[in-house]
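Checked the freezer inventory, then went back to the computational side. Two predictions to log before the end of the day. The first one is the construct we discussed on Monday; recording sequence and tokens without edits.
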Amino acid sequence: MTNGRLAVQVRFLALLTLLCISAMLSLAYAAPKAQMLKPFTSLSDASKQCVACHKEQNPALYQQWGRSKHFGANIGCYECHSADPNDADAIKHEGFDIAVIVSPKDCGQCHNKEVAEFAASHHAKAGQIIGSLDNFLAEVVEGHLSFNGQSPAAVSGCWQCHGAEVKVLKNGDLDPTTWPNTGIGRINPDGSVGACSACHQRHEFSMVQARRPEACGKCHLGPDHPQKEIYEESKHGINFYANVDRMNLDSSKWIVGEDYDAAPTCATCHMSATRELPLTHDVGARISWTLRPAISEKIDAKALAQGKKVKSWEDRRADMKKVCSACHTSPWVENFYQQFDHLVVLYNDKFARPGKAMMDMLAKHEMLTKQQFDEEIEWTWFYLWHHEGRRARHGAAMMAPDYVQWHGMYEIAERFYIEMVPQYIEVVEHAEHAGKSEQAKEARALLDEILSRPEHAWFSGKEPDSVKQKRLEAQKAFKQRYLSESK
């Protein structure tokens, strides 16, 4: 019996040793933890003076700071707002040189990794929109340069998401057309780009707040990029709001599949750590298609073709699949991406490329003026790709069927066939009457070629009779079923 007990004890110890080794290995290979910053032992004298006043003058800011991790680390007002006297936006305040704006350069004193990742992201370039069609609409078509030489529509609209170039007036004040502004691509007086407070709201900088979908919803919503609404329609969004109490949003590492499993948020897929990936502040690092322009392309395809060293779309997609695999099987993920890819290709080939070719043809032969948005077809084309086209593509990317169909492809098709094609013919006819016979002939030939393609055969009347008959039979069966059910 003694030998038997000894054998059991040996086996138990061996098993315990294996479990310990396994646990140590899992810790060694786990995703990197959040950056641990060494706190100050006490609040600085400068910050103590700031707090003494602002506690009375701005009690809400004081309370927010008091709930923050900065408070726990003795990082106060002065540590973030101190400035060099030579800084463009430096002011004298109660004997101190400070700057109202806390820029990524300031945050980078402690959060250097996060700032470097953000600087490499598309978000960091969001403020460079002066020459865009969107900004032209806000400055000229919708607006007027009546507010210190700027359009109020751009100041309170576009720039609050994209970011403004913050300017300092001659008297040292911040130009009210550019401040306040928490646009994600803000161009700061110190030369840095971005606004950490676009996502991490002052002065609490709560992880919980930044991880919720509402953090992204300030900008990613509306008729042309409704990612917030799309998320809410998707199974992911439905699960999040139903199970938010199980999301463990205040976890320090917050690894999907370990710390929570109810649903992903925007941060989960685009930024947060997984069992295999570290946290990143480059929100585009896992995106494989660009769904913003008129015609979608694989991310960085052009850069790679030019020999530039950038992360390929295949590698980006592989990273996103690692996020998906925390909750889904490989076949599920692969099939989803096939569905997504085919929708984007359908949009590109059936509507976007033909539409762009038609607009390019009109521009080539100067059948339109050089001014944007002064002719109906320019509005029609803009709606097609900038609004409906984006909605359909983002709907497919984030699994929101209503945005793919009724807010997307349905409206794209109506816009193309019922508005754009007739408007194109009208413009060509006007050019022909103005003496551009050869140019009109070339423009008509392009439209004929487009509409002769199989995907447009229903519209041109060239669809095979067998296909028509099959659809008619299906429609008849559908009507009969509904008639029988109504009796």
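The second is the one RB wanted added to the comparison set:
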Amino acid sequence: MLRKFTLYLSLFWLSSTSLFGQKSNFEQTDRFFDSLDFYDKYMGTVFIAKNGEPVYQKAIGYADLEKQQKLTPTTKFNIGSISKMFTSVLIFQAVEEGKLSLDQKLADFYPSVPNAEAITIDQLLRHRSGIANFTNSPLYLTYYTKPKTEDEMVKIIAEGGSIFTPDSKAEYSNSNYVLLTFILEETYGKSFQELLEERITGPLKLEHTQIFDEIKPEENEARSYSFKDNWTLEAETDPSIPLGAGAIQSTVADLAVFIENLFAGELISKESLAKMTELQDGFGRGIFSFPYYDRKALGHNGGIDGFQSLLAHFPEEKLTLVTLANAVNFNTNDITLALLDSYFGKEIKFPSFQSYAVSPEQLESYLGEYASEQLPLKFNFTKEGKILIVQATGQPAIPLEATAEHTFEFRQVGAIFIFDPSKGTLTFKQGGGTFAYQKQ
């Protein structure tokens, strides 16, 4: 995911076996989203399609808070790393045409990148190159809103170095897909936007899908926000930074058409699709697998600035789910589960938004730096007024919500922090993991 912060995040969907009811219950879904809207927890658009036909869609919140411009089902959002699916499709099209090979070396294009002579296009697609993720560097926050040239981006990526031997393991890196973008542009002698139009958006008539530019709410484009005691407008990433790793803008309906045609064989061959969806260490080639009980969807999620997105397709059921958000103060995984539970006839869990008042004395007792022997990530806790702020190693400061005695949450990623001031300890929970921390 291309985002300005990445806590220790594990996207977790329920993955046990269960029997489902056959009747969808979207009345409860409406009430679920009405609750999120009332408590100011989420702004976005969601969409479900079966056999290419919409069965549920809803939009809540604002495309522009200042002007009180409402979101609609056709509002355009910056989709972040879902863009990687488009880039992967373009690479496979080039391979099918004999213009590129999955075994081709990065050194043929960018020999200045460490280990370029050992890194293949295939390893870039599968995040097995070892190239450091440039968005993880603290320097990223100093330039992400300013335009960069190809030479500047390649230099940034090359200077980031290598973090493991190519093909020894997989680790997510936006650098891989920025380089793939440049390779495509050099191969065809055309811009990434031109390739998108000629090869994907034009043939599929995706009229609202393109590389984003400065956000224009008057053209039904959503601004993005983060929650810091109230909704705060996010700065905008310049599209020259993420490119094919995260610079596409789209709508829920366009994305549904894209993934449905991808799995129908309209964009790449059956053989290429099989390679694209082949998983190793949890990574496909520009695609992931998401479990839902005994079912599995294929697709990608994304995050850029305050935007969070998900595109998922269940091939056997011919079911597509899209969620696009421009403001989130809630665990988006719970939103995904609510939508799927409603579709499959299960009762959904309605969240409780009870808040907990923390005294100034209590707040003071939590402040300081905490370290763990289980994770290399350190947490530094400060305060702004009555709000507890956490800053993880090398990452921006994030406000937390008090939910119970000594307990704080960052709901967007399901992170929970539980303090024991008398012992100077902290328990950090996320993605099914529990980690012990000690105050330094």
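For RB: Confidence is low (pLDDT under 50) at residues 1-22. The chain has two domains: 1-352, 360-439. Let me know if you want it refolded.
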